[in-house]
Amino acid sequence: MQKISVLIVAVLLLFCTWMLLHEEPLPPIKVGVLHSLSGTMAISETPVMQATLLAIEEINAAGGLLGRKVEPVVVDGKSDPSVFAQQAEHLIVDEKVSAVFGVWTSASRKTVKPIFEKYNNLLFYPVQYEGLEQSPNIVYTGAVPNQQIFPAVFWSLKHFGPRVYLVGSDYIFPRVANWLIHKQLPSLSGEVVGERYVPLAGKDMAAVVADIQSLKPDVILNTINGDSNIAFFRALRDSDIEAKDTPVMSFSIGEAELSQLADDAVGDYAAWSYFQSIDNTINKHFIERYQARFGKNKPVSDPMEAAWLGVHLWAKAVRAAQTDDVAIVRQAIKHQSMRAAEDIVSVDHATQHLWKTSRIGKIRSNHQFDILWTSDSPIRPSPYPATVSRSEARVFLNRLYKDWNGHWEAPLSMESGDMNE
Amino acid sequence: MQSKGSFVHSIFGEFIILVTIVLIPVGLMIGYYVFEHVNETIEKQYLQSLESLADEKASTINEYIDQHVKHVEALSKDRFSREAVEAFSKAFHGDGVDSSAYQQVEKIYGEYFKESFDDGDDYDLFLIDVEGNIVYTIQHEADFATSLLTGAYRESGLAEVFNQSLNHLQVGNSTFSYYAPSKEAAAFIAAPMMYQDKVVGVVALQFDTQRFYEVLNNYTGLGETGEVVVGKRMGDHVLITAPLRHDANAAFQRTVALDAVDALPIREGSQGETGADKLVDWRGKEVLAVWQYIPALEWGMVIKIDTQEAFAYWYSLRKSLIVYSILALLLMYIVLFIVTRRVTRPLRRLTKASVDIAAGKDDVQFLKSGGNEVGILSDAFKEMFEQLQSSKEEMQRMLESLAENNRLLDQRVNEQTSHIRAVLDFTTDGIITIDSYGIIERANPAVCNMFSYTENELLGVSFITLMPEKNRAEYNQILKCDENTEGDMNVIRELSGLKKTGGLFPIELRINDMPVGNQHLFLATIRDITERTELEHQQARLMEAINQTQDAILITDADAVIEYVNPAYLMLSGYSENELLGETPRIVQSGEMSVSFYKKMWEKLLSGQVWSGEFINKNKNGELYEVEQSISPIFDISENIMGFTSVQRDITGEKKEREKLEHIQRLESLGVLAGGIAHDFNNLLTAILGNTALAKQKLEHLSPATPLLTNVEQASERAAALCKQMLAYSGKGKFIVEPINLSHLVHEMVNLLEVSIDKNVVMRLDLSEQLLPIEADVAQMQQVIMNLVINASEAIDKHSGTLTIYTGVVDIDEQYIATTYVDSDLKVGRYVSLEVSDTGCGMSKETQKHLFDPFFTTKFTGRGLGMSAILGIIRGHHGGIKVYSELGKGTTFKILFPCTDVLNVESLDKENAIYQEQRQGTILVIDDEETIRATASMMLESFGFTTLTAQDGQMGVQVFREQQDEICAVLLDMTMPNMNGEECFRALRAIDSDVVVILSSGYNQQDATNRFAGKGLAGFIQKPYLPDDLRDIVFKALDQ
């Protein structure tokens, strides 16, 4: 009898100890990381993916979220919008992720957008883009034209003169950007002296250079993307078009691209919300952590910072919501703001774009920028600028889509050329 | 009440202490845990509701601003507004705002704006032309008609939103800041008015600040202490931008430094962060606060409530809980006290009863029977008490009866004691009691007598005093053993005792362990065994004599059943002791003795007399032996025969020796006689022959006496020859000793021998070419050979037969010597043998017995001196002779002569005296032929080798296995019994695969080596071989 009693007491004590000590580990919060890890975009997207992972690691290092670890599920979009769509669906349906961080090109974004809306999931899109879009299922952490292009155009005209030459890659962003510049210039008494598009990855800059040489614009507004920039700047310098005479204001050249341009772009300008050379403690730590994790001297650029802060904003929303339930997090995200490397960023509750600071930098020879101008405060995001109405925008986009045979970029066979309207 | 100590040790006290120790800490722990948890939960929940409030508040503000954005956007896109601004501008730039033109315009458009103006939310509306002139306001405050680019208010919020709209073509709003025209804080929102892609003007709204503050400072859900704090970061401090609940004048007056220790929420919030926590606010009070950032106003917003208020309900609840808990505890103690007292009361009474019992009281009070466990215990206790009482009386009775018994016992003990004392006094054994230290406690008179002490001298003395020095250690050892074994110890030792006078005498000491009460005593019994020891010594000596004697001794009982035999008898009879004991001496009867012999023996013995005589007995192996025996009857006290003793001496060998000696002596005396006779006879014959020759010379040639004299001469010469034989027999024949080779000698004599033998006898010679020389007289050797050959020929007689002469070398040992006829001079060693064999009639045993007797002959013509002479010659040369003969089969005489030294041979054998290479090492010769072994060994030794020999394959393998390290080569015969050369070779190779084996065989080489093809044979030599052949083969094999 006594033995049985002792046994029962011992079992109960063991049970209590076990109950106290054994905490069922909570399942991790899964998030998707959707970027091109192969194909032409891999070179641009890989650092963005790394910045995303860095933020996730930072959150986990600080104890995770709601007592749970954040588990990234990294998938490859293979630089193909259709693959992006498949992978997005896979992440949401199969992996049951609470949010997805990623996507770069507008083409990819536009193909995945309906999927996120269909499954009511949440995408954090980290790249500056052309605007004219809004979705309750996307948080846009990059700048829209009124936060990048408009201030830059105003600044350029003020500093270099009213005669503007537009050059861009032939896909949606440059087309929309230039369309908006066309709308903006009259109010600023500026004029477009010429406009030309080169195919994505195109290298033939003869026509562009000839234009510039003949038109002699005060400033060139450059929306060329990717490798073509190398050819463009080489061609400019080869034709003795110097930055001091005909400065180029670029909208798609960041620190990552500078390293490929040798010194051809030194003295020219770029507009971003974030430059690696921003001098504040948060940016310093961000760069240190990134480089410690992914490689010394690796450049850090605007989309990377936007990706990184996107993860942190999402984490704040999850904390505020006390759940990773997408529907509730979507509500909570509207009230989030934080001190990011670029300065304070806040989610605009109406558009789910960010209030962002605008900056203009001058390219230095060390692949970095001298920051020449910073907006007084973060600028309210206007995905649909005041210069165009929503219906105008819709018509314009539909026309592009139709012209490109149902794609968001010009087919390669398409001739580049003037697009004066 | 009991004392403190007894309270602690009473069941009641322990129970109360236990409850106190267990319940209070457990209660406190649970209470603490619950309180902490509730605290935490309340805090969390409160913060969450504050967050919701903050979200709501932020949404309200945002919506408020959004409304204005929409309003201003709507105005900016309104065609009427656009026209208005153009019209106002025109009028403004025309005659100014005071002109009638302007008033005209205002009349047209002003009404419209005033109507559409929501004075609930907005304070003022502005139309500004592209040059920055405020061309229209509703309020017409001081800012009206001023330029926002150059005028007094170019730094105002209105100017800021104007520039934003104009430059960036988007809606812009300002945050709240002091605006002089309105004399209060103001915020503006503006939108560009576009026409044909060009900006034609800007429309702006001024928020109704009071209305905004009302919206902001809605404290619903924030209780009495809740507060909304908004602030804007201005460089290194935060400016509070709206009135506070606790400080109505705070707006644009109160600031918080960014590095302040308190007011963290507004500092964080104004820098873009969101959060929630419990901390100290700007008033220094602990609050629950949440904070957010409102981008449109660049404001941080904090919503907070004093912890005191948030937790007020919980605090009061907590207080009540504590009070109730204490009351519950007190109540529990009271109940516990009462219950425990009730439960322990019977126990206390029971305790008192047991104390009474212990004190021996008879009137013990017990509880009423029945009830709970304590009642049952009390009943059991009562029963036990009653049983105890009756047991006590029973015990009393038993004690009395025991006392009586004791008295009787004492009496008996006294009687027994005096009895024992008498026994001790009169016993011849000494009895001593010793204590555990070895001190004598008591000693009986026998001890005193034995050791010549008085009793008083012994008492108190160490027991070892009675022992000589050499025995004391042993005695101590005995006592020690005894102590260790604890009782049941019965040690008997034979030791020496030491008398007081110093004399030693043997004693038997027995020590017993004798525990007496707690004392550990020893009882030593000492017996003087002087006489017994003496007797034992005598007996032992006798026994030893009997065992050692060479004479066989047998003791039987009266029925002649063997009771004892000594070792000599066992040796003699060949039986073991077990086989003999219980048997009668008939076991060794040979049957050689007659029945009457035994009869006479028994008659004599049974009459009590000693019988002596010689017996022929048979041992266990069936061999006869002869003994000289003396049998004596053994008598008991009443003179009855109780057994017999027989002493026997083996005289078998002695008798043989005696016979042999007699024979030799006889032959020697005959030799002496024959020698003497021959000597004298030779002298006489010399005279006879001389005289006869002279007589013949004197006679005429044809004298009839001449033939007679010739007969005399011939008879004399035969007599001379006979004398010569006799001299030889006597061993005194003159001979010149020189080294001779018997083989050579036989060769030289072949012609002579062939004429001496019958024609039907075939003479075969088997003569060793490598025979060692012997030191001998050539003539006598010739005589020996001739005699043997003639005898052999004669033995063959008329039949056809073979006579073989063989020479060789043989190593002989003592066993071999024993079988030779002349053994007196033979030594172990190497001998040259000469054999003469025939296939003749052979000899009977009897003939063989007298073979060498002089004048014994089986021939008609012989004189019986031939063999005697041979024996004489052999003895003269220190040789030996062996005879093998079988009737009808033939006879072989083998004569052995000692070899001469090998060195002498070499010096002698001039032909072989060339230099011979010498080698070292041991060679094993395996051959079943003794002569081959000897000859080969001799040859090999002459090359410098050491040799080992083996007579068959098995032995060869054994020798090789034992001494393989020394053996450098093996000379192996092919054909052998037991294990032939082939098998032996395989066995040797198995032991050492590199063994050097030279095969020797009578087969031809081809045949022999075919059998060993490819098996690693080192060489082959064909029999017979010469030394040079062997040397070449051996050296070659070793050099390979």
Characterize the structure shown:
The complex is a heterodimer of chains A (421) and B (1040). Chain A is an alpha/beta fold and 421 residues long. Chain A contains 13 helices and 15 strands. In chain A, 42% of the residues lie in helices and 17% in strands. The termini of chain A are far apart. Chain B is α+β, with helices and mostly antiparallel strands and 1040 residues long. Among the domains of chain B are: 427-527, Beta-Lactamase (2-Layer Sandwich), CATH 3.30.450.20; 549-650, PAS domain (Beta-Lactamase, 2-Layer Sandwich), CATH 3.30.450.20; 735-902, Heat Shock Protein 90 (2-Layer Sandwich); 915-1039, Response regulator (Rossmann fold, 3-Layer(aba) Sandwich). Helices cover 48% and strands 23% of the residues of chain B. Chain B has a six-stranded antiparallel sheet with strand order 10-9-8-13-12-11, with helices on both faces. A five-stranded antiparallel sheet of chain B has the order 2-1-7-6-3, with helices on both faces. The model of chain B is unreliable at 1-5 and 903-915 (pLDDT under 50). The A-B interface holds A 146, 150-151, 154, 183-184, 186-188, 316, 320, 322, 332, 335-339, 343-346, 348-350, 355, 376-380, 382, 385-387 and B 48, 51, 54-55, 58-59, 62, 66, 73, 76, 160, 166-173, 191-192, 194, 196-199, 271-274, 292-296, 298.
